[in-house]
Prior knowledge:
The protein is an alpha+beta fold. It has a domain at 14-118: CATH 3.90.1030.10. Helix content is 44%, strand content 11%. A hairpin with a 6-residue loop joins β2 (95-102) and β3. The termini are far apart. The relative contact order is 0.12.
Amino acid sequence: xxxxxxxxxxxxxxxxxxxxxxxxxxxxxxxxxxxxxxxxxxxxxxxxxxxxxxxxxxxxxxxxxxxxxxxxxxxxxxxxxxxxxxxxxxxxxxxxxxxxxxxxxxxxxxxxxxxxxxxxxxxxxxxxxxxxxxxxxxxxxxxxxxxxxxxxxxxxxxxxxxxxxxxxxxxxxx
Length: 174
C-alpha cells in the first residue's frame, strides 16, 4: 500500500532522482523552457518552485541552500540575477506545464515546462500593470457602486454639435 506516499519516484533510486531533478532544474533555469515527459515535468515543478522562492531573498545563505540542490554555479547566477528580478512581484506559480501529446517512439506523454514570466506570448498584457507590493489571495474587496453613483448626471458626455466641432479648428489656425 502507498498511503500518504505522494512523491513520484520516477522508477529511480533516491540519488538518481536527485541528480535527474537537479539537472532538469538547471536546464529549466538556463533555457526558461524545456520539453520532457509529463511525469518528470510535474515532479520538476514541485522541486524547482521552492528554489525560485528562495531566490527572491538574495543572500549568501540562500545562495548556498539553492546551490546544495542544483550544484551549478551558472544556474545559480542566472536564477538570482535574472529570474528572481522578473518574478519578484509574483506570489507563487512560477512554472507552467503544457501537455504536448505522445512521443512517437514509446508513446510516452510529453510536456513542456516553462517559467511563466519569460513567455512573451502569454505575458504581453501583464507587462503594463506590474505590481511591486505583495498580493494576497483574499476574496472580496471594494463594494460595487450602484448605477446612480457610477454615472452621475454631471459627468455624462453629450455629443458635440457640428458648430462646436468647427470652433476649435478656427482657434488653432489663428
